[in-house]
Amino acid sequence: MRTSHLATLLFLLTLNPSARAQYVDEQIQRVTNRMTASIVIKGAPEHYHTLADSMAKYKVPGVSIAVVQDGKLAWAQGFGVKTAGSNDAVSATTLFQAASISKPVSATAMLRLVEQGVLALDTPINTFLKSWQLPDNAYTKTEAVTLRRLVSHSAGLNVHGFPGYAVGAPVPTVQQILEGKAPANTAAVQVEMTPGSTWKYSGGGTTIMQLAMMDATGEEFPSLVKRLVLDPIGMQDSAFEQPLSKAKQDLAAAGHDEEGKVIVGRWHTYPELAAAGLWTTPSDLSKWAIEIAKARAGKSSKTLSQKMATAMLTEQKAPSGLGPMLSDKGDAMYFEHGGSNEGYRCFVVYFPALERGAAIMTNGEGGSIVFRQVLNALAREYQWPAFQSREITLLPIETGMLTELIGEYPLPPGSPTDTPPSLFISQEAGKLMVEVPKFLPKTEIVMPAGDELLAPENGFQLKIIKDQNGQVAYLDFGSRKLVKKAR
């Protein structure tokens, strides 16, 4: 435990309940009223804004935050409203779609089945699939698709994510989704590169994991995860319900598009349960994170043994563990996962050695910028070793470079966006702007170094790759090669 952390803990212990509550309230006020951009310019005046400012700017009606300190829930609070234009306030128990944060929670259930001998991490996945089989091809001749590779996104599969199904639209079975057959709205899931060779995010792979769990146990997925994970941890406000039951609909925040308008039908349905189907709260996600960290430390076995929890938080194929994403080492190591469903953006992070973390859920497409700024504020207030605002020195962008950069960059298959599948760079009022519709709202980008473009609002990064003549060859976007579209 760090000295500053110990001093804070000792200070809190000296306070009576009333004073402690006041101290926590002061922390909440500092977090929500002294927010900054993710990147600050060196030498520029400090500029703070409120959470309400950020929500209004990015048209996010509601936000819910839960913060963990000393391995316990320190506070949980809702901000804004469940539905734009209403007075129905978001509370700490308001339900949101967890989107891809469903993946590490589902992985926890899968790993419990491994410990029970029902599944195995390194056995070819078709061994456990009874109702459908993953087609073999040239890529699987020497290496097999296994649960270890599926859960760490290293199985070489396609289908990055899922758009969901509008309320009232036909919903496919899991088998139809995997086969890419109507009414499924995504391609057939198949092996596109040698399993184990590289990291490639695949919600399609997680859906195969879902079917393997169901086929191996003969149990429906919602009840399976409830029994293995949700109930043991005490995640009472969580459920893999798609569609959401009428009894819980009044508890849920509606999803909103990038303009702040309610999604038709309030939300989409995701039959890809393991990949995107969890409804939950930040408090429940925090319970999950705390439990995984306790299991790794040998302090709990409600879900996983110490050995399995350690494996879960051990890098398999960077940046994935067995479910969560992993970063840094030692006391600074943290596990995390983000989520992006139609109308929802969310994030959970936890530092096991420090017993600190948070979960943030939003009901707007612009929520990724909002939660990133909340993370910056939390990192400053609670002395996290990561997520604090980065200070940079700007370089002027030459006119020739501007001309080279401005334009449309089609995104490659498997990118976390759908329509239109492009990144756009433009110039407005003397500022360079970047936009990825449905993924990144239009925001300013600046150049701190000759090979980097950054968005101060949320830390979005593009790397400039030049050719031998010093001209822009392409942009690197999270290991994706973006080449400007010819006019």
Count of helices?
A: 14
Number of strands: 19
Report the CATH C-level class of the largest domain.
Answer: Alpha Beta
Largest sheet geometry: 6 strands, antiparallel
Q: Segments where pLDDT lies below 50 for 5+ residues?
A: 415-419
What's a concise summary of this model?
The chain is of the alpha+beta class. It has helices spanning 3-14, 17-33, 51-57, 102-115, 147-151, 174-179, 203-217, 221-233, 246-249, 273-276, 282-296, 306-312, 367-381, 399-405; strands spanning 39-41, 62-69, 72-80, 96-97, 279-280, 325-327, 334-341, 344-351, 356-362, 390-392, 407-410, 422-428, 431-436, 440-444, 446-449, 452-454, 461-466, 472-477, 480-482.
Features:
6-stranded antiparallel β-sheet, signal, 5-stranded antiparallel β-sheet, alpha+beta, Beta-lactamase, 14 helices, single chain, 29% helix, Lipocalin
Task: Write up what this structure looks like.
By secondary structure, the chain is α+β, with helices and mostly antiparallel strands. The chain folds into 2 domains: 295 residues, DD-peptidase/beta-lactamase superfamily (Beta-lactamase, 3-Layer(aba) Sandwich), CATH 3.40.710; 90 residues, Lipocalin, CATH 2.40.128. Helix content is 29%, strand content 20%. Helix 2 crosses helix 13, helix 4 runs parallel beside helix 7 and helix 4 packs across helix 8. The longest helix is centred in the N-terminal third of the chain and has 17 residues. This is Beta-lactamase family protein. InterPro entries: AmpC-like (IPR050491), Beta-lactam-related (IPR001466), Beta-lactam/transpept-like (IPR012338). Keywords: Signal.
